[in-house]
Amino acid sequence: MRFKKKIILLALLILTITGCTNLNSLDLDTLVDTLLEQDSNLTNTVFDGYKYYVPKGLRLIEKNEYNASFKDEYNNTYYLYIDVISYYNKENVEYKVNNKAYFSKKLNYDNKKGYLEITKIEDTEAYFIEFMYNYGKIEAFVSENEIDCAIINMSSILKSLEFNRTVLESIIGNNVLNYKEDTYDVTKPKGSTATKDTYLEYEEKYGIYEGYGDNNKQEDKIELNEN
Asked: Which of 13, 22, 129, 135 has its CA at 20 to 30 Å from residue 149's CA atom?
């Protein structure tokens, strides 16, 4: 197992230099373990109350409240949702492994919890990825040979998430109930309900997550300085 992880770490080192196009298919279970067990203190994207690292090959295309969307080098769209309410309330993630999914795994590393579920969309070549971890969730439709790259990109963002509780307290502390009423249920997987129509209409109808509304809207800022 340690040898496998060393090979994956070498692949990840190559990834940072060459991008996902040179990444061969890897064992998903080992890949996820290796990615999330590694310490990360990288940050290059900062907003009010939280920050994270966006890896090479991803570009931010839209930001709205606690939602963001990115494009990867395959032109896939990643939808990111930051669940500041669950963080604020220190809520736990409940997830039951889905044996019918293409891949399903409950996550718990360094007291950070979540799940990864990948569902094959019938009658298409698409796979729906739901990656919930560390009070963030990313969703995307990708082809099978793009799954590893997507998991690496998603892991880089989610495991690097850091929250500033003091700032979040000033933004939502007095309005938790109002925010909670409009919150998207980020912890509930919906892969089993993803269909061909969902895939074909995803970007047009789904778009960015509809989050907390306009209450206490803050001016966002991005700082592109790596630690």
From this structure: 135
